[in-house]
Amino acid sequence: xxxxxxxxxxxxxxxxxxxxxxxxxxxxxxxxxxxxxxxxxxxxxxxxxxxxxxxxxxxxxxxxxxxxxxxxxxxxxxxxxxxxxxxxxxxxxxxxxxxxxxxxxxxxxxxxxxxxxxxxxxxxxxxxxxxxxxxxxxxxxxxxxxxxxxxxxxxxxxxxxxxxxxxxxxxxxxxxxxxxxxxxxxxxxxxxxxxxxxxxxxxxxxxxxxxxxxxxxxxxxxxxxxxxxxxxxxxxxxxxxxxxxxxxxxxxxxxxxxxxxxxxxxxxxxxxxxxxxxxxxxxxxxxxxxxxxxxxxxxxxxxxxxxxxxxxxxxxxxxxxxxxxxxxxxxxxxxxxxxxxxxxxxxxxxxxxxxxxxxxxxxxxxxxxxxxxxxxxxxxxxxxxxxxxxxxxxxxxxxxxxxxxxxxxxxxxxxxxxxxxxxxxxxxxxxxxxxxxxxxxxxxxxxxxxxxxxxxxxxxxxxxxxxxxxxxxxxxxxxxxxxxxxxxxxxxxxxxxxxxxxxxxxxxxxxxxxxxxxxxxxxxxxxxxxxxxxxxxxxxxxxxxxxxxxxxxxxxxxxx
Length: 560
Ligand SMILES: NC(=O)c1ccc[n+]([C@@H]2O[C@H](COP(=O)([O-])OP(=O)(O)OC[C@H]3O[C@@H](n4cnc5c(N)ncnc54)[C@H](O)[C@@H]3O)[C@@H](O)[C@H]2O)c1
What we know:
With 560 residues, the protein is an alpha/beta fold.
């Protein structure tokens, strides 16, 4: 039976058969011969995910002073049923990642179809032809319990497998640039020995040329420029590797405007990435307790933060929303903790703030379920069987990436509490964390395992039509700051929902005027960090009581 890989739009691609491999390699040899004749270096990007697909295009788009392409890029994606579709799609010039940045599809199409400097392949033999290998495969951190990052481990399987394959195929002069976010120490203490062992087996006596330079990509509106026009840190295992990685990055990234920082050892580059993201995770987690404080004491944390941010020293203070998702912030601190013990062999427990921040961020969104329960209770409606619409499935505004989004936990907890969930997201066609919850994010590692009654969520589909999604809803949860949700009119929402609803604002989306209008329409409003809504409710109630005809208005009672 032929096996297939199915793209997000439903197109079926048969996986390559054994006889396809030699044909593919012959084709690659021919292409590479022609590209070398044009004076171009051959770069292989391993892993065509969120980072690799766009990094491959950035390299393929690089040019010399005369405007001529200087690199030929082969994107290498393993031919699994889950991911193989990326290879044929990219070969048509279609981006395997969806993005709000119009430059992503344009650049990929330009490099594949016009400049002809980019292709994708499924064969590892392509590594034999590379001058530079850029490693962009994943390195996960698997958590065994919810809200306890210490109870987990780095999952190095894909990375270690990739490094072994690289060592079996590359030439001795090939630069291997690891961009994957790794546990600090990985390049020197895991990657280097793996490749060196493979070299010795093959009779290669020189040492591998390895370097690390982490990505700071933001897959949103500035996807391409967050790779190309941004500061980079790098380091090589020896002088030769360092000078090669510096030369390479200077050729493909805008280092003139965004100078490189070259560190002495790869562990410093690896640590920089983990500290950078743990710092961010920490300042977000710090606001969680103040968010609760605000809710309980009539304070609007959004206004408080804006008041503080005018101070230049505090301008990067950000409201945490319903938890901190994305691929990086929930796991990177864990990679640091794990490395201390399992790579470097220390037994003591030095980490306090880093794991606490990850744990707070990982569970913050559960509070949204409590607010929903309380809002519905104030309206005299039980949470069980309530029709709840979550607006936004992705982890941040205006992107289609759902990895570890706060919305996932909101859906899971409310489902456990008996509610019926629906979801709308203009950027997400399939929410694989539910549709394929036995495989995502990895086999038996779905967050599903921390909640009961999750089976029906396999049928959860993302609605694209907001009016349809709203019909008959009891509650609307504003979970993500997508631009589509910033100016929703309360009158329209209540009209489409066909009556007053509970509105839960997770991200400071509603201004006071809108909150007030929802109350006038008989709705109940609650929000993360938005303690002042009760004051607005009282004002609306007061205004209504002073109407000349004293028209009776039904108000949801606060029973909290
Ligand atoms: N996504 C982000 O916003 C972001 C930002 C900064 C850094 N990073 C880091 O970059 C790295 C990659 O992240 P991503 O988001 O692109 O992950 P991803 O899961 O989207 O992509 C990884 C890709 O590698 C492929 N792969 C795995 N093993 C392979 C092999 N042996 N050969 C070929 N392909 C293989 C997978 O099939 C997948 O397509 C991670 O370490 C991540 O932490 C990601």
